[in-house]
Design goal:
- The protein is about 40% helix and about 20% strand.
- With about 475 residues, the protein is α/β, with parallel strands linked by helices.
- It folds into two domains: about 250 residues, Aldehyde Dehydrogenase, Chain A, domain 1; about 190 residues, Aldehyde Dehydrogenase, Chain A, domain 2 (3-Layer(aba) Sandwich), CATH 3.40.309.10.
- The strands form five sheets. Strands 12-13-14-11-10-16-17 form a seven-stranded mixed beta sheet, with helices on both faces.
- Strand 1 and strand 2 form a beta hairpin.
- Helix 11 packs across helix 12.
- It binds nicotinamide-adenine-dinucleotide.
- The site of nicotinamide-adenine-dinucleotide has 32 residues, from helix 9 and helix 10.
């Protein structure tokens, strides 16, 4: 369905098959690149960084190139959204929002190229003390399969805005929108070698990218286990590393909340992208006085979620990304049952083509259970009860992760006390949101290192240089 794989097949380049999650059938084939291909791409990116036309562009023209890419994403939004929906299995409504986020992202960072600079500093020495913000060099960027175009854009846009060049490795399951984005970047006038996409296995080309001596910065989003390995591999060369990793976020429901709003948000923030979301609110902690009513309403609401064809506008939840991943999620459901939690609804794989799974609610879960401790990355939540504010905070913090979370209460004092006490990088009050393009996003504890988005992201794609001028006669 795209010239890239057909070209590769015709040329005898090794390829691998992508399966469409909604049908279980072949979607397309993409090149399976090697460590040698990584070397070629990184060397080209290094040349483009050192002496190519990207380096020579003034900051206004660099911003304009990124703005043209934003416009091209908008012009091609329909095709990109369909490609993403089919490749990942996500509902088309969500895919459209993510393509819009990608366009907004390039637009936002296009505006930063001539605004972010250094300072003059009133130091103790008599001369002039100043700082510059300089690009790092070649950035090796590795992204996961759950939000391909969104995560690609929120890493690539700030990297390019600061004048770096990028070699990007998308997840092997979902490379299609990244390949399309790289081709739109060329159409936008971003020179060859500035933004290159390589496709293949993480264990082969991902590792080769992280270890390549000409890569100066690694930005990784994915699982905590692979992220820790990336950090170890990057250590030898003291590469700059930022990591966005797993999560097990809590949604805290107090007895004075807007009940219907809390239910609606609990459903959308745990089942968006079929729960394959690092920010999914997979632990739902409810005050004991409303626990039973809340649990019943949540089970009813999960039962009404429209699971179906990603390309149907009415679909609220699509299939999981692969049959293998569905099997992994089902093994967590089995574990939840065997450890004593009550499966109140869902968990079955319907007898249709595609890797579908009915959304599941566990009740009677306890904090030592595997389904409460580990990231399931699927449409599965565990509901637990708390007695008071102190216990709610302790339960929320009883996790190795700290990425996102929500608090539902009408008491602003309590909302702020709890928001400050929960150990997490992002949190919303009376809302299920996590990502705001204009604000820093990232995790604490085993959820990651560094921040994406907002102006904060630019710190991770630039180096401060301090220059002192002796002005004595
Ligand atoms: P993953 O860690 O398996 O893979 C992520 C990326 O790393 C893929 O591109 C993969 O090919 C590559 N990779 C795999 N092995 C590698 C290796 N040895 N060296 C270098 N790269 C390698 O994760 P996934 O299954 O694609 O994504 C799901 C995970 O991503 C979840 O844990 C989720 O929480 C996390 N995630 C985090 C965020 C965030 O912002 N914190 C966002 C989305 C997803």
């Amino acid at each position: 369905m795209t010239p890239v794989p057909l070209f590769a097949v015709e040329c005898g380049v090794p390829t691998f098959t992508l399966i469409e999650p909604a049908t279980g059938e072949q979607f397309t084939r993409v090149p399976e690149e090697s460590a040698n291909d990584v070397d070629v791409a990184v060397r080209a990116a290094h040349r483009a960084f050192k002496s190519g036309p990207w380096r020579a562009l003034n900051t206004r023209d660099r911003g304009r190139a990124l703005m043209r890419l934003s416009n091209l994403i908008r012009e091609n939004a329909d095709g990109l959204a369909k490609l993403e929906a089919r490749n990942v299995g996500k509902p088309i409504r969500e895919a459209r929002d993510e393509v819009e986020l990608a366009a907004n992202c390039f637009e936002y960072y296009a505006g930063t190229t001539n605004k972010i600079g250094g300072d003059t500093i009133p130091g103790a020495a008599p001369g002039v003390l100043m700082t510059f913000r300089e690009p790092v060099g070649v950035c090796g960027i590795i992204v996961p399969w759950n939000f391909p175009i969104a995560i690609t854009s929120w890493k690539v846009a700030p990297a390019l805005a600061m004048g770096n060049t990028v070699v990007l490795k998308p997840a092997e399951q979902t490379p299609m929108t990244a390949l399309r984005l790289a081709s739109l970047a060329l159409d936008a006038g971003i020179p060859e070698g500035v933004f290159t996409v390589i496709t293949g296995k993480g264990s082969v080309i991902g590792e080769a990218l992280v270890k390549h001596p000409l890569v100066r910065k690694v930005a990784f989003t994915g699982s905590t286990e692979v992220g820790a390995n990336v950090m170890r591999l990057a250590a030898d060369d003291i590469k700059r590393v930022s990591l966005e990793l797993g999560g097990k976020s809590a949604l805290l429901v107090f007895d004075d909340c807007d009940f219907d709003r809390a239910i609606t948000s609990a459903v959308s923030s745990s089942l968006g992208n079929a729960g394959q979301d690092c920010c999914a609110r997979s632990r739902i902690l409810v005050h004991e006085s409303i626990h039973d009513r809340f649990a019943k309403a949540l089970v009813d609401a999960f039962g009404k979620v429209k699971v179906g064809d990603p390309l149907d506008d009415a679909t609220e939840m699509g299939p999981l990304v692969t049959a293998a991943h569905r099997g992994r999620v089902q093994s967590y459901i089995d574990k939840g049952k065997s450890e004593g939690a009550t499966l109140a609804c869902g968990g079955d794989a319907p007898n249709v083509r595609g890797s579908y799974l009915e959304p599941a609610v566990f009740l009677d879960a306890t904090s030592d259970m595997t389904i409460v401790r580990e990231e399931i990355f699927g449409p599965v939540v565990a509901v637990m009860r708390f007695r008071d504010e102190g216990e709610a905070i302790a339960m929320a913090n009883d996790s190795m992760y700290g990425l996102s979370g929500s608090i539902f209460t009408r008491d602003i004092g309590r909302a702020m006390r709890v928001a400050r006490a929960v150990e997490t990088g992002n949190l919303s009050i009376n809302s299920g949101s996590s990502v705001h393009l204009e604000a820093p996003f990232g995790g604490v504890k085993r959820s990651g290192l560094g921040r994406e988005l907002g102006l904060a992201a630019l710190d991770y794609y630039s180096e401060w240089k301090t220059v002192y001028i002796d002005v004595s006669a």
